[in-house]
Amino acid sequence: MTGGDWAGRALTAVIDRVTVTEAEVGARFPLYADPGDGRWKTTGRGSWTGGFWAGLLWLRARRTGEDAHRRAAAACTARLAPWVDADSATRGLIFWYGTAPAVDTAEAAALRDKAARACLDSYDSEAGVVPWGAALGGPRLLARADAVPGLVPLLAGAGGEGPAVAAAHLHRHLDLCLGAEGAGNGGRPRPAWQFDAATGWRPREDPAPGWSRGEAWLLLAVADALLRPEVAGHRPERLAFAAEQLLVQAGALTGRIIPPNEASRPNGPVDTSAAAITAVALLKLSRAWAPRAAVCSYRAVAILSRLADVHLTGPGSGRPAGMLLDGCYDAAGGLAVRHELIWGDFFLALGLAALDDLVDITRV
Questions:
Q1: For residues 280 and 263, what is the distance between their CA atoms, to the nearest angstrom?
Q2: CB-neighbour burial class of residue 28 (10 A; exposed 0-12, middle 13-18, buried 19+)
Q3: What is the phi-psi region of residue 168: left when phi exceeds 0, alpha when psi lies from -120 to 50, beta otherwise?
Q4: CA distances (Å), 166 to each of 81, 153, 326, in order?
Q5: Most exposed: 12, 26, 185, 209, by fewest CB within 10 Å?
Q6: What whole-number distance in Å separates Cα of residue 16 and Cα of residue 60?
Q7: Cα 47 to the chain's mean position, in Å?
């Protein structure tokens, strides 16, 4: 992929892969694909990842301009509607990334607004968060790093108290994950906490500090907040400090370009999806945060280039081209540790689309 329009060529490969995936999965949602043959594990309702598949279909529609692709993206987005009232903070991931790349579609905007109001209504003022929720199983009153991305811009667009709740939700997570009590081994953010009305917040052991995707999720949420004055105006100095903390503690600018899934296991599986999320966050920071704009932009391009050069399958490999390999879904459970992940594909495509001027990264 090096030389010339490498970003455009890589984006074409990922978009072509979307069409192959569409033919395979039909009305189901892809989750992760086997690195050997590219066959997808799918879900019927999309789980927390359904919005990334819809988002990829919208990016394809933008790339090709074809009416059939726009209709396919709109139909997939409509299938996300049952998640509006789900008890889950992952509605931020589902409805922001499933609708923000849409091409001037009133239906997608209406669904996003409905989801935003539902998330606003579920805000727990005592805990200070939109709860992680029970829709995916486990305790309801959790604060997790992956409960923040997508939800910040989703809530910010809800009107009324939306921006204030977006800020409160984000800052509660930052205070927990990055505060003095939140720092885990090596000063890495602690990504998961549980709330009890009698005792308050206490840390959970899983995911453990040093989870690279959790750090990437937090950085992305901070970048989205900095891009929105109505959110950034709440504790702006804390927000800027959080950005610095994450860049330093997670090594986003100086560490391995493709990070290990767990910092405590540097020789364990890497996670290309964490790298792709980080690249998008850095591109956003380069637009929102003047003190670090140049270095964030340079690092984002370096990450995307490495993903395209080393981890994206090409033609003639015995498997589909355009697969972003070496994503790690769940190392502890041994689940899909070197696979193609649908959210990894999405964030790689989104970063490449920004470099190719296909999307305004400050709005997606």
A1: 21
A2: middle
A3: alpha
A4: 22, 8, 33
A5: 26
A6: 8
A7: 14
Q: Answer yes or no: are the C-beta atoms of 346 and 279 closer than 8 Å.
A: no
Query: Containing H/E element for 273?
Result: helix 272-288
Looking at the DSSP assignment, which residues form a beta bridge with residue 124? 129
Q: What is the DSSP letter of 336?
A: S
CA angle 352, 353, 355 (to 5 degrees): 65
Q: Which long-range contacts (CB under 8 A, 24 or more apart) does 27-34 make?
A: 27/79, 29/53, 29/342, 30/342, 31/341, 31/342, 32/327, 32/329, 32/336, 32/339, 32/340, 32/341, 32/342, 33/323, 33/339, 33/340, 34/339
How many helices (DSSP H) and strands (DSSP E) are in the chain? Answer: 13, 6
State the first-to-last Cα distance of the chain, in angstroms, to the nearest integer.
Answer: 25
Cα–Cα distance for residue pair 182/148, rounded to 1 Å = 16
What three-state secondary structure class fits 270? strand
Element of type H or E holding 101? none
- Closest by Cα among 137, 151, 131 to 194: 131
Q: Which position has the token pair 């081994």?
A: 185
Dump pLDDT digits (tens) for 292-346.
Answer: 999 999 999 999 999 999 999 999 888 999 999 999 999 999 999 999 999 999 9
Q: What interhelical angle do 6-25 and 342-355 show, nearest 10? A: 150
256 three-class SS: coil
Residue type, 79: R
229-282 pLDDT, tens digit each: 999 999 999 999 999 999 999 999 999 999 999 999 999 999 999 999 999 999
Tokens of 307: 């993903």
